[in-house]
Amino acid sequence: MGIIVFYEGPNATQNIVQTIEDTPGQNFRPVQNDTIRSAKLFGVRPGCEIAVYDSPDGSTGDDFCIVNVKRVAPEYVINTFERSYEDEYVIVSFIRNNDLDGKISRIRVN
Description:
Strand 8 (85-86) and strand 9 form a beta hairpin. The chain has 110 residues and is mostly beta strands. Strands 3-10-5-6-9-8 form a 6-stranded antiparallel β-sheet, with no helix packed on it. A 4-stranded antiparallel β-sheet has the order 2-1-4-7, with no helix packed on it. It has a single domain, classed as Sandwich (Gamma-B Crystallin, domain 1). It has strands spanning 3-7, 16-21, 26-28, 38-42, 49-53, 64-69, 76-78, 85-86, 90-95, 106-109.
């Protein structure tokens, strides 16, 4: 089972805001609203989709970012949720409205 750790600062720095497993079907508000700016993945399963939203109800009308895990990595840092890119481990798709980092109000894991 993989672990996803959400951080207050960019590049997985500052305080840990919340730690969850990569179990599919999760849909929740983070324990601290408008705090998360980055994440670290520990052994997260391929096919896992992590979505973070500015909107508290997960609406796609505001900023959101979807991380699709392609390959398991012992440790992988998502430095920011405000950049789209792809590498051998993940595909990150950021849809901008204004800002997302530090404004995350809903998390979904599938």
